[in-house]
Fold each of these.
Amino acid sequence: MIGDQTTTEETRRRIAANIASVRATIAEAARRVGRQPEKITLVAVSKTMPLALVQIAYNEGVTDFGENRVQDALPKIAALHPPGLRWHMIGHVQTNKGQRVAEAFDTVQSVDSLHLAEILNRYAGARTPEETPALARQIATLPGLTVQGLMTIAPLAHSPEEARPTFRGLRLLSEQLRQAVPEIAWQHLSMGMTDDYVIAIEEGATIVRVGRAIFGERVHR
Ligand SMILES: *Cc1c(COP(=O)(O)O)cnc(C)c1O
């Protein structure tokens, strides 16, 4: 895909334009609902994409990248980890991969069990999110982890608008958890992907995870 000079320059221009367009869309959606665009983190989802494309996005000012498979992500993380760049794990983590995930990633958005949290805690300096109050309270007691908030994926839908109840539900859950588990700051709502990040911002997303709108369609997975 990235062969000769021309292709590389073309690819760079395409990705730069995509990033500019996603950023503009984020800003517009935020302003429409009276939010500050700079409070929203764009996570560029680089799963299945080669390192060269991640490098291009990084050169264009993207600081946060999302991956969903440990094996695919590790070589990219090893090759590119300048200060200020953050790698987010956004896919299910098998507990036998917990150590490698804790060591390589900066944030694990997909903590879905106390068992996984405990394994991450064993190998991490500080990290993570989760979901129900009981789980949140238990995870909050693990000294190596910081619970930052909640992440969700909306069900597949015909129109972005159909994702709104899911996003609103996560925001309401976060507000309930702020009362029920005040020892956690609950500052982050990671929600919204290529097809629905505008709706997610309208509903309070502080992190959007965007893949295809930046890197183009994925060939597989
Ligand atoms: C693939 C993926 C994304 C990005 O999806 P796009 O539709 O390419 O923007 C976001 N979040 C998770 C958890 C993913 O697996």
Note: The chain has a mean pLDDT of 90.
Amino acid sequence: MSWIVRYLFALALSGTLVQSSNLPEVPPGVFNVSAQLELQTTTSAVWDALTNFPAYASWNPFVRAAIVVTPLNASLDEQYPVENRRLFLRTQTPPLPLPVNSDTPDNPLNTQLAYENITHVQPDLLRLAWAYAATPPDVLAGERWQAISDLGNGRVLYESREVFHGALAPTLRDLYGAGLQESFDAQAQGLKLLLEG
Ligand SMILES: *[C@@H]1O[C@H](CO)[C@@H](O)[C@H](O)[C@H]1NC(C)=O
Ligand SMILES: *[C@@H]1O[C@H](CO)[C@@H](O)[C@H](O)[C@H]1NC(C)=O
Ligand SMILES: *[C@@H]1O[C@H](CO)[C@@H](O)[C@H](O)[C@H]1NC(C)=O
């Protein structure tokens, strides 16, 4: 291979890598919602924001509270993601208008409470996931993945995606599919406001 061929090959390969997703491959479900947004920041700043549960209310228009709890729903001292722990979420679907801060009140008509299992905390791969755990999986299941990739030149790709399964998933899609999509997009925009100032 001449140097020019090798150079073009490397260029093509780096282009592919830059555009590839850091979300894992998962089986298809009934429907999914996802968001992706490029941010001018560092991967560690995004990781810190996503794992700092107590600070969610100050920027997140979708997840207004994320509390690590015992199986009996008592709040734990360690409020950061740990695999196999339970997570209580209070969310807004559709989302609150941006910007939000910790004093922004919920819209009670759009408030949902959810219990999740924290399934993956992967600081080396820059991925996090939790799975809906309030119903048996054949009734409703969904694992929400978030992933970060370094695009170089001070740019970072933030991605989130949840694929829903189970007998209630078509109903969830009809009632909340559009609102959930708005909420995923709004969380990405909230992160951008937080990290780009
Ligand atoms: C998400 O849904 C779209 C169609 O709406 C589909 O093309 C895509 O394969 C789905 N992704 C996953 C991971 O299920
Ligand atoms: C679980 O804990 C959260 C946060 O402390 C609380 O808001 C929620 O009402 C509790 N759920 C139940 C069923 O007690
Ligand atoms: C959540 O965790 C509990 C106990 O660790 C387990 O019994 C349950 O199947 C899990 N649910 C999901 C949806 O992963």
Note: Residues 26, 28-29, 32, 163 surround 2-acetamido-2-deoxy-beta-D-glucopyranose (ligand 1) (CB under 6 Å).
Amino acid sequence: MFAAPNEEEKKRIPPGQYLTTRFPVLHYGPIPELDLENWKFRVWGEVEKPLILTWDEFAALPRTKLTMDLHCVTKWSKLETTWEGVSLQTLKELGLVVPTEKAGFVIQHAEFGYTANLPLDVMFGENFLLATHYEDEPISLEHGAPLRGVCGAIPGRDDLKDVYLWKGAKWLRGLEFRASDLPGFWERAGYHNEGDVWLEERLQDRAW
Ligand SMILES: Nc1nc2c(c(=O)[nH]1)N[C@H]1C(S)=C(S)[C@@H](COP(=O)(O)O)O[C@H]1N2
Ligand SMILES: [Mo]
């Protein structure tokens, strides 16, 4: 459903986007089954030590709550969405995920081989969460349960990098820390590597 933005909202809508009040479901391929018994979250690569957590262990981590505007490259924007989850900063402070000096990029790995790549500093920004909850409820299966990466825009925080929503992997199962970049699923399919919503970085900027 289209919605007409008011003056305040207009400033929060990047060029070429329109406002929706729905929450569209968008992904390539099937929706996985929820199997929390066998679910594991893995972190590997350029980190001080690799990490494997069960669902119970992940669910016991301290969570951050955050309200963000979401911008999908297919041009819908949804304002004021509230997420709760674990930030990379929290994982670092707990000593669970400590990047090495060489680490410059993080690849999110999801079910069925979906990946999304972001620079380390974007992943550590306050507008990126390993999210378990949406609007105070566990995330629904179609939106990525039990865990998804989510990146949005926090109004007024011009210091943060705002990227399109494809840069957050639903059904997230692991993070690979790397010295060099590696294009993700949509990046290889022709989408822009950086995906800045304010610069309208929608389509490919380079050949891989
Ligand atoms: N695992 C997985 N995550 C994914 C995708 C996908 O195809 N597979 N699509 C991305 C895209 S293009 C968008 S716009 C958002 C949509 O999230 P939503 O379905 O919760 O709106 O998920 C992103 N994360
Ligand atoms: Mo998207």
Note: The helical segments are 7-10, 55-59, 88-93, 120-123, 185-188.
Amino acid sequence: MALFSIVFKNNVGIYLAVALSILLIGNSSAQLSTDFYSKSCPQLFYTVKSVVHSAIQREARMGASLLRLFFHDCFVNGCDGSILLDDTSSFTGEKRAAPNLNSARGFDVVDNIKSAVEKTCPGVVSCADVLAIAARDSVVILGGPDWGVKLGRRDARTASQAAANNSIPPPTSNLNSLISRFGAVGLSTKDMVALSGSHTIGQARCTSFRSRIYNETNLESSLAKARQENCPRPNGVGDNNLATLDQTPATFDNNYFNGLVNRRGLLHSDQQLFNGGSTDSIVRTYSNNVNVFNSDFAIAMIKMGDIRPLTGSNGEIRKNCRRIN
Ligand code: HEM
Ligand SMILES: *[C@@H]1O[C@H](CO)[C@@H](O)[C@H](O)[C@H]1NC(C)=O
Ligand SMILES: *[C@@H]1O[C@H](CO)[C@@H](O)[C@H](O)[C@H]1NC(C)=O
């Protein structure tokens, strides 16, 4: 209250106070909490983790795919499960948007988790929250840091292909555009670098890195040569051939950053983080100290999970993640 009585003494103060209250009201993520389902679904964490665990045992890459789904959900109108909606004859969702088409995967695993959760707590837990927990579990199972996942998000009744096209950064991005795309959703440059460390797991398709391995000079030559063997130069040939994003794709470690320091980033956007610019020092820090990376990564994941959630009576708790109720 003292703050308000001081600022209200002049006109500028009134504007400040109004701006401050808009900020506080606008911050709906204040309603998310780690114990949101502790009474309504006490087995939730156990249930999610056991399904994620068996999916990763079948295929280690699935951990990477689930983590990426959460990112692609959160960057498009907030973490609201919108990416999980299937297209229908009368509805165009996000699955066929440019960043997701032939690329986003793991939807069956999300279905399996959701069905397991519905068995014990029907109609209680949102798909958006299931994805947030599955992303954390994937990181932990593959050897990365743990964090308390904030919960209480509700599911969107809409999706936006246009927003998916325009909000998720493409691999052709330069450093300034990466900084500004993350800034647009309230994430700092440091958050952006830490979150890019997700590329310590998983794979990319030839079409995502072709121009880099044939045309760019800030790429270590033996890696360029090795990647060219499974990614032919002509557009359209071998587009979906896969390559790992770092040398240890099934372990969540800081090898991705060691790779960047050695000019071994696979995507153009990866190497932008260590190319003589303002983020070189952050990359060096993460490359030298896995504990700093792990801790910054966990903080940034919590921040990303706070992007514009639907709460209260907004949205719904979907029964099936693929369609609105
Ligand atoms: C900084 C901007 C980013 C760009 C430009 C970018 C771009 C990409 C691209 C092009 C791929 C390969 C997709 C394909 O070829 O099918 C990929 C894979 C991946 N991305 Fe990112 N990404 C970024 C940030 C992030 C963030 C913030 C996360 C998670 C928090 C993330 C997690 C992943 C994971 C785990 C994979 C591997 C997925 C799999 O194997 O299924 N990325 N990313
Ligand atoms: C999104 O991108 C895809 C692929 O480039 C394109 O086919 C589609 O029309 C775009 N959608 C919108 C709504 O702009
Ligand atoms: C490399 O750059 C040249 C000249 O800009 C372009 O014509 C060619 O398509 C590029 N190659 C690849 C594989 O992107």
Note: The chain has a mean pLDDT of 93.
